[in-house]
Amino acid sequence: MNGRSRRRLGALIAAAATVAAVLVPAASSAAAPRHSPTPKVPRTSVIDGKRLQQARIRLDHGDPALRKSLKQLTATADSWLGQGPWTVVDKPKPAPGGDPHDYLSQAPYWWPSQPKTADNPWGCPYVQRDGERNPEVDTGTDRPDVGKVMNSVTSLSLAWYYTGRKAYAEHAAEILRTWFVDPATRMNPNLDHGQFIPCKYDGRAIGIIDFSQQYTSVVDAVALLDTGAPGWTRSDSIGMSAWNKDFLGWLVDSDFGKQESAAENNHGTFMDMQVAGLALATGDRALARKVVLDSRTRRIDAQIAGDGTQPQELARTRSWHYSTFDLVAYTRLAAIGKQVGVDLWGYRGPQGQSLFKAVDLLLPAATGKADWPYPELEFYRYAASDIVHAAADAGDAEARAALPELQAPPGGDLWALRPAAEQLDSIAG
C-alpha cells in the first residue's frame, strides 16, 4: 500500500470513529439512566407502577429535573453497597422462645426504674416515658437491622430500575435472600416477640408496627426486582411470595394481629395498610378491597375529627410526628385502594372527616407559615412533605399550592421517583 492509500485509509478510519462516537454514547456513570426498550411496569402494591415506568422513560430521554432526583437516589443507594446483608440469627441472644430465627425487638419508650445489679440485671421494673427512646432498643435485638434491610432494598431496587446498574439489583437480592429466604438465615414469618418489655412481656401486639410502618416498601422493592433484575432468581421470587403469604396469614389469624387491627390510632391504620398491601401482592384482591373499604368507618370516621385533627395522635408528646406518621399510612392505604377500585381520598365521614382535611390542617406548619400548636418534643417540618405531595396528586388545590414552600428532607425530595409517602423523620414505636 502506498503512502497516499495509507493516508486515505487512515482518514476513513478516523471518520468512522467520529460517527461511532456520535452514535454510541460513552460509558455512563452509575447515576446515568440506561437506554433500552420500554421498561416493564412493576406490579407494585403501593407505588403506581405506571408512574415508575413513565419516570424511567423520561430519564432515558434526559429529563433534567428527574436526573437531579436520580443523583440523590443513587447517592443513597451507593451508601448501601458496602453494608449488609443482615440476618436475625446474628443477635447476641435468641428471642424468649429460644429460636434464633424469631424476630426480637424491645419497646422503645420503656426504661429501667432501678439500678442494674447482679440480682436485677435489667433494672426492673420498666416504666414508660412516651416519646423518649431508650438506647437499649438499638443493641441486642433485630430492630436496627430490619430497619437497614427495609431502607436499603427500597433504595437499591429503585436505583436499579432507573439506572440498570447491576450492582444495585444484586445487592438488594442478597439482602432479601439472607433475611427472608435462605433457610440458614431467614426470619420466621411472625412477630411473636416484637417490642418485648424486660421482666414484663415476651412480646406485644404493638410490635407489629416494626414491620407495618415500612414493610410494604419491601413488597414494592420485590415487585421492581421481579421485572428482570440481575441476581434475583425465580427461586428468590417464589421464596419471598411464600414468606409473604405465611406472614399475611399470621397477621390475620394470630391474637397479636387481631389486637393490632383493633387499635384505634396509627397502629390500626398501619395494620390495615400492611394487610391490604400484602393481600394485593399475594393475589387476594378481595381481602385488599375489603380492608380499604372498612377503613372508611373504622379509621377515618373513628380517628379523624371533623376539623381534620387526629385526637389520638395529638395526645402524644410527639404530636407532629404521629400526626404525619398516621397520614403516611392513610395515604399509602389510599394508593392501594386506587388499585382495587376504592376512592379513599374522596370519602367524607358523617362529621365531614376526610384525608384532604387532615392533610390541609398540617399545611401552615408544613410550609413554615405558622407554629405547630400542639406538644412536640422534636419538630421536623419536612416530615409532612410526602403526604402533602400525595394530597396534591389526589387533587387537593391547597396542598398543590403549598408544594414550593415545603422543606426538603435530608435525603432530598424523591417524590418524582418514588411517588408514595414514607415517614421522613422516622422513629420506632
Explain this structure:
The protein is an all-alpha fold and 429 residues long. It has 16 helices and two strands. The longest helix is centred in the N-terminal third of the chain and has 21 residues, at 3-23. The relative contact order is 0.11. The model is unreliable at 1-32 (pLDDT under 50).
List keywords for this structure.
429 residues, 1% strand, disordered N terminus, mainly alpha, single chain, 16 helices, two-stranded antiparallel ribbon, 50% helix
How would you concisely characterize the structure shown here?
The protein has 429 residues and is mainly alpha-helical. The chain contains 16 helices and 2 strands.
Strands, count:
2
Major sheet: arrangement of strands: 1-2
Q: Tell the overall outline.
A: globular
Strand content: under 5%
Structural class: mainly alpha
Secondary-structure element pattern, one letter each: HHHEEHHHHHHHHHHHHH
Mean pLDDT level: 91
Alpha-carbon Rg, integer: 24 Å
Largest sheet properties: 2 strands, antiparallel
Distance between the termini: 80 Å
Q: Fraction of residues in helices?
A: 40-55%
What ranges have pLDDT less than 50 throughout 5 or more consecutive residues?
1-32
Q: What does the secondary structure layout of this molecule look like, with pairings?
A:
Blueprint: H1 3-23, H2 49-60, H3 64-80, E1 110-112, E2 126-128, H4 143-163, H5 166-181, H6 209-212, H7 215-225, H8 234-253, H9 255-261, H10 266-281, H11 285-303, H12 311-314, H13 319-339, H14 355-366, H15 385-393, H16 397-402
Helix pairs in contact: 3-4, 4-5, 4-7, 5-8, 7-10, 8-9, 8-10, 10-11, 10-13, 11-13, 13-14, 13-15, 14-15
